[in-house]
Recover the amino acids of this structure.
């Protein structure tokens, strides 16, 4: 397992796609949210309506309310891209055959990929929260009030939820042997989550529940509904590990 972890961490650290995606997640999301603060003082009623939480309640609370909305969509796709790349790069580079000759089992390698992905994801989630705080201070929001701390917690928790609910992309990238299969799966998860929310079933759709919980602090998202995420993620991980165990060179 240690050998697999070292190998996968090395691949991750030198991958351009990971670096670019990390920048887009951390700086992209935080810059989008902070730049919107400069449009708050507007006399345009239509623009004011679009800014929503930045005007009401405004301040740090409105800033983080917007941040969780952006993170709920952009974060999921960003994490899905890196996860898909991790599990499809051997197929794209033509190095999959070499994995059959090394003493580390393919199932162990897949597990190492997941550990590396989760570690990278947690680091980017923390970096995103820090970037949001620093840019909020730079934009003149002032000291962070105590009642905003829960919003900061929701922001960080939503990032972590987004990391784990993207795991079906790993299985799709493995079965499809393509990064596009994994990315498409992440996009499908995002779209179906939006549809479930519009139809009123979002609370019972595990992929939509984290965003609902984070965005709507007054919405009753029950612990039972949040707990449904665990079996879904566990199933995705199990399918991924089994798929890597059963990999065949002729397919």
């Amino acid at each position: 397992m240690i050998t697999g972890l070292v190998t996968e961490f090395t691949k991750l650290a030198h991958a351009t796609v990971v670096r670019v995606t990390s920048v887009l997640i951390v700086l992209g999301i935080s810059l989008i949210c902070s730049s919107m603060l400069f449009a708050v003082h507007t006399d345009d009623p239509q623009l004011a309506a679009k800014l929503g939480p930045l005007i009401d309640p405004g301040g740090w609370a409105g800033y983080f309310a917007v941040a969780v909305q952006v993170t709920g969509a952009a974060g999921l796709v960003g994490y899905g891209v890196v996860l898909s790349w991790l599990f499809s790069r051997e197929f794209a580079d033509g190095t999959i055959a070499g994995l059959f000759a090394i003493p580390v089992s393919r199932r162990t390698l897949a597990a190492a990929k997941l550990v590396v992905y989760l570690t990278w994801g947690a680091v980017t989630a923390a970096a995103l929260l820090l970037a949001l705080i620093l840019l909020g201070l730079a934009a003149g929001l002032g000291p962070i009030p105590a009642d905003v701390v829960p919003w900061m917690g929701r922001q960080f928790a939503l990032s972590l939820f987004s990391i784990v609910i993207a795991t079906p992309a790993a299985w799709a990238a493995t079965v499809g042997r393509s990064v596009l299969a994994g990315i498409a799966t992440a996009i499908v998860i995002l779209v179906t989550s939006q549809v479930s929310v519009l139809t009123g079933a979002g609370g019972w759709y595990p992929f939509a529940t984290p965003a609902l919980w984070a965005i709507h602090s007054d919405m009753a998202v029950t612990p039972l509904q949040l707990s449904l995420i665990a079996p879904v993620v566990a199933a995705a991980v199990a399918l991924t590990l089994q798929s890597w165990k059963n990999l065949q060179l002729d397919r």
Notes: The chain has eleven helices and no strands. The mean pLDDT is 87. Residues 59-93 form the longest helix (35 residues). Residues 2-245 form one domain.
